[in-house]
Specification:
- It is a single chain.
- It is built from eight helices and four strands; from the N terminus they run αααααααββαββ.
- The radius of gyration is 16 Å and the shape is globular.
- The chain has a four-stranded antiparallel beta sheet with strand order 1-2-4-3, with helices on one face.
- The chain has two domains: 59 residues; 116 residues, H-NOX domain, CATH 3.90.1520.10.
- The two termini are 28 Å apart.
- The chain has 181 residues and is α+β, with helices and mostly antiparallel strands.
């Protein structure tokens, strides 16, 4: 997982619950207090899962609630950090069709082929008769976060669409399949 996610997750924790909460999440997740997450560097997915689980415990949040909060925080940061991404698309559909290429662009900074593949292999998208079908495959099982982000992108563009999951890895499927109509 690219360090941008961990960095923003800690930014969210500390902005909503204070620096002590961030330190406690690090302690529970066995992450050194002085570790900085670089936004273009790849980090261990298992470490991310420990951080996320610790955040749920420390902030007393359910997974869906945390994914919604993080989606809002992440999108707000992205609009400031990369405004051109949003200007390049006329609507949510165009943006969501482009999203895997944006995501996989982070892989280009990785020299290790295994790290690059771990980033590249998470998303595949289909444009199917006006419907965007996203195939998501990750041990992190953040399909809920992706769906929350998709809903936020739809709102950002003022579009109307429905986001639903046809199948999910959490229920034993080989991948999560998300439909945006």
């Amino acid at each position: 997982m690219v360090g941008l996610i961990q960095k923003l997750l800690f930014d969210l924790i500390e902005s909503s619950a204070g620096e002590e909460a961030g330190r406690e999440v690090r302690r529970r997740a066995d992450v050194p207090q002085d570790k900085e997450f670089l936004i273009y560097e790849a980090y261990d997915d298992a470490e991310f899962r420990r951080i996320f689980a610790s955040m749920l415990d420390v902030l007393n949040l359910g997974q869906e609630e945390a994914e919604e909060a993080f989606a809002a925080f992440f999108l707000k940061d992205s609009e400031v950090r990369w405004p051109i991404w949003f200007k390049m698309a006329k609507n949510a559909r165009e943006f969501l069709l482009r999203q895997p290429r944006i995501h996989n662009g982070f892989a280009t900074s990785q020299r290790d082929p295994a790290l690059r593949a771990a980033i590249d292999d998470k998303f595949e998208v289909e444009d199917c008769d006006g419907e965007v079908i996203v195939h998501y495959k990750s041990a992190n099982q953040l399909c809920g976060l992706y769906m929350a982000l998709a809903r936020r992108v739809i709102i950002h563009y003022g579009d109307n669409a429905v986001v639903k999951e046809a199948c999910c890895m959490k229920n034993g499927a080989p991948e999560c399949e998300i439909h945006i109509l």
